[in-house]
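From the shared-data thread, chain only:
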Amino acid sequence: MAECKMCGGVGLVRVMTDEGAWASRACECQETQKEERRLKAAEIPERYRHCSLDSYDPHYTGADAALGRALLTARRFVEDYPVNTGGIGLLFVGSIGVGKTHLAVGVLKRLVAERGARGLFVDYRELLKSIQNSYNAQVHVTELELLRPVFAAEVLVIDDLGAQKPNEWVWDTVALILNSRYNDKLTTILTTNYQNLPAGGGAGSEVERAAREQTLGDRIGDRMCSRLQEMCQIVEMTGKDFRQSVKRARFG
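Structure, as tokens:
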């Protein structure tokens, strides 16, 4: 890191007080370094480090109006945090490629930078695999050690909720994480490709339910799907895959 021109790298600058006396205060570079450390601790994957609320474009050709509303909701959430959010998080729901992870990371980065929040990003599938791997006697890390930062993060982003094939162990693990954060009133931001509906779509015969696409209730269980309605503001993001739309426009 280049030496700060204001403090020369010592971290302090001399300022004149209102009383006309000289005093020392922390240089702005110190806060910048703290912010950089908090962002590093958030473990945002390299693929998403460029994402911000300012770089999210909801107005590309053919974009659904829901994307603009989602961006507005994300910005308003940052402005309201933490006084007016009360531990309530966000659940971004939509098909692949509409920018759910982009907005989730954008919110996380803004809260770290502007609110000094201690944040953490986890990929749902990778987290579950890491926990399963901890049961291996050759791995010198316990399930509790893996989950401790997930439980404790002031703001937690869980990306791609429901991506892991469901079973009783998956449901129990999801319940453990969500219930812990719910009880501690900690902010959780999630993304999912599955419709925010109970198992089977919530209506119709068994045959009709089996023919439908799976829902969030199918993937994490109805009990936790219901819990998320209490924990989060639901942000529906409808539209076509942005990446495919751009590719078609570029090569069409």
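The domain at 43-251 is CATH 3.40.50.300 (Rossmann fold).
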